[in-house]
Design brief:
CATH architecture of the largest domain: Orthogonal Bundle
Oligomer: single chain
Radius of gyration: 29 Å
Number of strands: 31
Distance between the termini: 71 Å
Structural class: alpha+beta
CATH topology of the largest domain: Transferase(Phosphotransferase), domain 1
Number of domains: 4
Shape: globular
Helix content: 10-25%
CATH class of the largest domain: Mainly Alpha
Number of helices: 10
């Protein structure tokens, strides 16, 4: 009889780490910092040697400043820039930039298409949730435009195809953001999802992002919503994506329409793996005929040419499924080896809805297993076996000793270079107020010679690198020291294109310090305050200008960074233009700068606080949450649209600002809101007002804000 198991014991709502998800899988993959070598960046053509593909790296200016194709991109649309990652990656974001070349460049790409491949043979065109395949690019030569990929891509190779509506020159610099696709899943085969009619409303439960083929009611050769990292909610008619149809988050099948008692899904992996657990996120809204499957049968195929194993049967007890909430069920697979899995999910009701299937598995390392059907010669000499065993043991012991020696030499060399950091740091200016950890702006001489620091930049040989160095004062308390170390730990986790990056730390000796990236053009407040808003009629004088689309682009990048922080449940507490670098990266330098001392108010017995940016509950109750960061974002957006010409509530004293927080608490319609800036459209001002809602639960999420700014606000003038 086939092996079977009961899930009475292991039926769990999982707390284990999940596979990549778009909000968290946003690491730069190496175009900007050179991790991706030149040999892996190719193109269909190049205008000259100085505009070859290798120059198409975001935020770098080598050669003539970008990749520029030799041929026209109109009307053929055949020119492309290609990046080969060599291994499958989960891509959640792409960034593009034009050719600036220190002000000499004039070419950029307004729109482009993305094509991707998992094997270098079959190429697929990326489309968004609504089937659109044209991606909005740049409006000038210098700004970085980031595009969230919804749905995300699983690919090894990616091509950018610049588009134009007329014959014109285009140039491009790019970066890819994501993480390694450790799952190893290359494709799955499943029946096409069905349409449920609920109270006369069609609920389309198809796999709308599947990138394979569809024939005779089956989808095969691709990946889709069952592995996109998005988990559906309790109510399958509600969706996490904006402006999509009901049921979008789930793939669902009707027992009646399918004509059989199970949904059969086959999973194909690049190489054989050892499978420990399968995790299935399923809906259980049984009041509408939807239940979690009651049984699973899985067969394993160790290789493409090898036979299927006997089925493993796993029962799901129905008494655990009375709760209508959706849930992730863990199914133990017993460390079985396979390259292909075939699982039957048995209906427990009229409908089965699944939003995600993932596997906890390990690569199967090659072994010298004898091929079936061939005779195996036996060695009867036990003495030979003992001798071989002794020799192997001696060799392993020698290798271990050599490894320890090399490891000690490596660390000795590395630690000697740590001491070089202090000698290489030349402080440019001190940005100090009364604080236990003042921030200094410094230059690192010859940063390429310091491998202990992680540099995300391509810095030219001999050119110093501007960094921010935060140093803990020697007389700091034990609590302050612990807080400093906690901040280092948190910053080390934050890797997002719109978040300041930790480059290095010194925690072995006092004083403790951390080194973060900084930029020569400074913070956003200083940048905007020296500019005037570009009017439709053009600049009225010689003053530097900034356009409304540029402001919205900056705001959307800030929202993108805060969206990433909120996905980690990280609360910033001091979001403002003074804490954003010009090339949008969210930082936390403002409190340490004398320049912005007037933005902070010292409440008796407490630290200095940026009360003009703070939600009422922060001021009155000390309650800081992601929702209070949303309030601060609304004020930051107001600053930007006012071109940082005045403080928020500039007509109120600090004490009156605190009194106004009390009016929000009392909610008697006497609270004062920031006024609408002259350039601000009414729809965008309504977004600000929603950020300042008295009820923190009614404030929008950063995901909603980011979607609004990238999809709606740009068209409001």
């Amino acid at each position: 009889p086939p092996p079977s198991a009961s899930l009475s014991e292991p039926l769990l709502l999982l707390s284990q780490s999940r596979p990549p998800t778009p909000p968290q899988c946003r690491y730069a993959l190496g175009m900007e910092d050179g991790t991706i070598p030149d040999s892996d960046v190719t193109a269909s053509s190049a205008w000259s040697d100085s505009t070859e593909a290798k120059h198409g790296r975001l935020s770098t200016g080598e050669g003539d400043g970008a990749w520029c194709p030799a041929g026209a991109v109109f009307p053929s649309e055949s020119e492309y820039l290609q990046v080969d990652l060599h291994r499958l990656h989960f891509l959640a974001l792409v960034g593009t930039q034009g050719r600036h070349a220190d002000g000499h460049g004039q070419e950029f790409t307004r729109n482009y298409r993305l094509r991707y491949s998992r094997d270098g043979v079959k190429w697929l065109t990326w489309t968004d949730h609504w089937g659109q395949d044209v991606v909005s690019g740049n409006q000038n030569t210098y700004d970085i435009v980031l595009k969230d990929l919804g749905p995300p891509i699983v690919a090894r190779m990616v091509r950018f195809y610049p588009l134009a509506d007329r014959v014109m020159s285009v140039c491009l610099r790019v970066e890819l953001y994501g993480c390694l696709w450790d799952d190893g899943l290359e494709a799955y085969t499943a029946p096409v999802g069905h349409i449920m009619h609920l109270s006369g409303i069609p609920i389309n439960l198809n796999d709308s992002t599947y990138d394979g083929s569809t024939e005779h009611g089956m989808q095969f050769g691709g990946l889709g919503q069952l592995c996109d990292g998005v988990l559906g909610g309790n109510d399958f008619t509600q969706t996490k994506e904006l402006r999509v149809w009901p049921g979008y988050d789930y793939v669902g099948w009707s027992r009646e329409a399918l004509g059989q008692g199970s949904v059969d899904i086959e999973f194909h992996f690049k190489l054989p793996r050892i499978f420990n657990t399968m995790q299935v996120h399923s809906n259980n809204r049984h009041t509408q005929g939807v239940r979690v499957f009651n049984k699973v049968e899985c067969q394993f195929k160790p290789g493409i040419l090898q036979p299927w194993s006997s089925p493993l049967t796993l029962d799901v007890p129905l008494e655990d499924l009375k709760d209508p909430s959706s849930r992730t069920i863990s199914l133990p697979l017993g460390a079985r080896p396979a390259q292909i899995l075939r699982c039957k999910f048995y209906f427990a009701d009229r409908w089965l809805l699944i939003s995600e299937i993932t596997f906890l598995s390990d690569p199967e390392f090659a072994t010298n297993t004898p091929r079936p059907g061939l005779p195996v010669a036996k060695d009867d000499s036990s003495n030979t076996a003992i001798l071989i065993g002794c020799l192997v043991g001696i060799i392993l012991l020698l290798l271990a000793v050599i490894a320890v020696i090399l490891w000690r030499q490596y660390w000795k060399k590395l630690l000697s270079k740590v001491s070089q950091l202090g000698r290489r740091l030349v402080c440019v200016t001190e940005l100090v107020v009364e604080t236990l950890a003042p921030v200094h702006l410094c230059e690192i001489e010859n940063p390429q010679d310091l491998p202990i620091l992680e540099f995300p930049f391509n810095v030219r040989k001999g050119r110093p690198l501007l960094v921010a160095v935060k140093i803990l004062r020697p007389d700091a308390s034990k609590n302050a020291r612990n807080d400093f170390l906690k901040e280092v730990k948190i910053l080390s986790r934050l890797k997002d294109p719109n978040i300041i990056r930790l480059l290095g730390v010194c925690v072995s000796n006092d004083p403790l310090c951390m080194v973060t990236e900084y930029m020569e053009c400074g913070d956003l407040n200083q940048y905007l305050s020296h500019r005037v808003l570009l009017d439709k009629t053009g600049p009225s004088n010689d003053a530097p200008t900034v356009s409304y689309p540029a402001l919205i682009s900056m705001a959307s990048q800030i929202a993108s960074g805060m969206k990433f922080l909120s996905s980690l449940n990280f609360v910033h507490r001091d979001l403002a233009t003074r804490n954003c670098l010009r090339h949008i990266k969210i930082a936390d330098f403002g409190m340490s700068r004398n320049l912005y001392a007037g933005d902070y108010y010292r409440i008796q017995g407490r630290a200095v606080l940026p009360i003009r940016w703070m939600a009422w509950e922060c001021i009155l109750m000390g309650k800081f949450t992601t929702a209070s960061d949303v309030w601060a974002f609304g004020v930051t957006l107001w600053e930007m649209l006012s071109v940082c010409q005045e403080q928020p509530y500039s007509n109120l004293t600090d004490e009156q600002v605190i009194d106004n927080a009390g009016e929000f608490f009392r909610d008697q319609s006497r609270q004062v809101y920031l006024g609408r800036p002259a350039v601000c459209p009414q729809g965008l001002y309504e977004l600000m007002l929603s950020c300042w809602n008295r009820d923190c639960k009614l404030r929008p999420s950063f995901s909603d804000i980011h979607s609004f700014l990238t999809e709606d606000a740009m068209n409001m003038v």
